[in-house]
Amino acid sequence: MLLLALESSCDETAAAIVRDGREVLSNIISSQIDLHAIYGGVVPELASRRHLEVINPLVAEALQRAGVAATDLQGVAVTSGPGLTGALLVGVSFAKAFAYALKIPFIGVHHIEAHIQAIRLEQEVAYPFLGAAISGGHTHLYRVDGIGSYRLLGRTIDDAAGEAFDKVAKMLGLGYPGGPIIDKLAASHDASGVKFPRPLLNRDNHDFSFSGLKTAVLHHIQGLPEPLSGQQIGQIASAFQEAAVDVLTTKILRAAEQEGLERIVVAGGVACNSGLRQRFTALTASIKTQVFFPKPLLCADNAAMIAVAGDYYLSQGKSSGFDLNAVSSWPLEQVSL
Ligand code: KG4
Ligand code: ZN
After folding, report:
1. How confident is the model at residue 337 (pLDDT cuts 50, 70, 90)?
2. For residue 162, what pLDDT band results from cuts at 50, 70 and 90?
3. What pLDDT, in 10s, does the model give residues 171-217?
4. Is the CB of 179 under 6 A from ligand 1?
5. CA distances from 113 to 22, 141, 225 (A)
6. How far apart are CA 77 and CA 333, in angstroms?
7. How many angstroms is it from 131 CA to the middle of ligand 1?
8. What ligand has the least distance to the C-alpha of 303?
9. Which of 9, 110, 117, 135 to probe ligand 1 with, by most ligand atoms within 8 A of CB?
10. Which residues have a Cβ under 8 Å from the Cβ of 323 and sit 6 or more positions away?
11. Could you tell me if the CB of 162 is within 6 A of ligand 1?
12. Counting CB atoms within 10 angstroms of each CB, which of 91, 115, 125, 318 has the fewest?
């Protein structure tokens, strides 16, 4: 099945042409970073307007790069939640109109399901596995038994990991989004004795907390004379990343062990983090548990990932009706076949 896939849940407008939920013919992303950077975070109204401006030319380009005509398409998959309602509505409305005009089916896809299943664009990972969705809005661990089958094992009780990366970067006067900038700084600086707490590390559950870690960084910065030197900023970024990576890797591996899961898929924007990848690789070098990461382009928001579950559902004869709505809050456990 040849699908157009669309993603507009936050600050990237993305379109992809994917065959059989597997073969990516084109996958293009129009980032809005420039638009939101001066505000230090995503401004929902501006995001919706930009999605609206770019979605038509973006889809035209995705088709052109794939060498496909709109009339060749057999379905449309679109993120319908969770995310910013106004932003989601642009993709959902476009998908409906496009599918209606072409008389093809369309399906609303859960953004986090798409992140977790993105790995299938690169390789098969046998079920069950532990799916860790670590992004700007989520730090959630699931037992994954198949597409449409998720059981929540643990989650952040406050901020998402990506949100903490972004907020710490803001405190340090670095740009937005902060994750990639902190990642780069941490790779070239040593924490040199700066150490931050590891919230909930030794708690006997699979939950996370990043708000306390963020506050500890703030108190540390407030205790230093201004302005901070480049060296100090690098040390703090490195110490923060060390704490975040320590908690994430330790608790994810422990959750997999306790649940008897031998495979882990780490997905979402924070899964791009090089420190996190290196640590997981080192920690699993001599144990049976295998850790899989989609390549960075497929970890961050993109549309190809939306096609994986979209193709599966459409192939099962499932599709959305024209009453499909954008849902800002949608627990993954509630998706079903
Ligand atoms: O999955 P994603 O692109 O969008 C959401 O669904 O939220 O994730 C975005 C988040 C942002 O908080 C961003 O700072 C973070 O992922 N991120 C990173 C890295 N690249 C992106 N965090 C840490 N290290 C990175 N290399
Ligand atoms: Zn995402």
Report:
1. low
2. very high
3. 999 988 999 999 999 999 999 999 999 999 999 999 999 999 999 99
4. yes
5. 15, 12, 45
6. 20
7. 16
8. 2
9. 135
10. none
11. yes
12. 318
